[in-house]
């Protein structure tokens, strides 16, 4: 009986090199012969990173995944999904470092803070490790609005009397040519 030949039966000739020949040792590209599909960048990633004081930049890691690259001081790559709730416990059990993330409501920018004691109610980014899947794909909450000065800061307008209101309505309805001239 003859047996099926294998790759180990033939010894490759180091002098016979053809760069266009089929390489049996190459990684398969899939059943269709097409390269693997690229991971698309999350749509919110540019808004999250734009203008951050921590110099956050969306980048593609060498492994092909999108990461948030912190380029202030020592550069670090963070997975873009926000880890919160029970996922914080999973990250601590897996030994993945966490960084607290907050959305600054006045400047509308993301701010990263180191956290020594992560709590489940907080929002964190998990350190990116190539070859490991991200713990979360949750979008960060960026809905805080800046306070409108004079309204949401606690400004209380002075009370208006009825005589002031009637005087305003009278001047408001007056034609422009009949308005009193201002003093110079």
Please give a structural write-up:
With 184 residues, the chain is of the alpha+beta class. It has a domain at 45-127. Helices cover 14% and strands 19% of the residues. It has helices at residues 45-49, 86-94, 162-173; strands spanning 56-60, 66-70, 76-83, 98-104, 109-114, 124-127. The chain has a six-stranded antiparallel beta sheet. Strand 1 (56-60) and strand 2 (66-70) form a beta hairpin. The chain is elongated. The mean pLDDT is 76.
Give me some keywords for this one:
alpha+beta; six-stranded antiparallel beta sheet
Instruction: Specify the overall morphology.
Output: elongated
Number of strands: 6
Report the major sheet.
6 strands, antiparallel
Task: Determine the mean pLDDT.
Answer: 76
Content-based structural category: alpha+beta
Low-confidence region ranges: none
Determine Rg (CA atoms, Å).
31 Å
The CA-CA distance between the termini, in Å, is 116 Å
Strand order of the largest sheet: 1-2-3-6-4-5
Order of helices and strands: HEEEHEEEH
Helix share bin: 10-25%
Number of separate helices: 3
Strand content: 15-25%
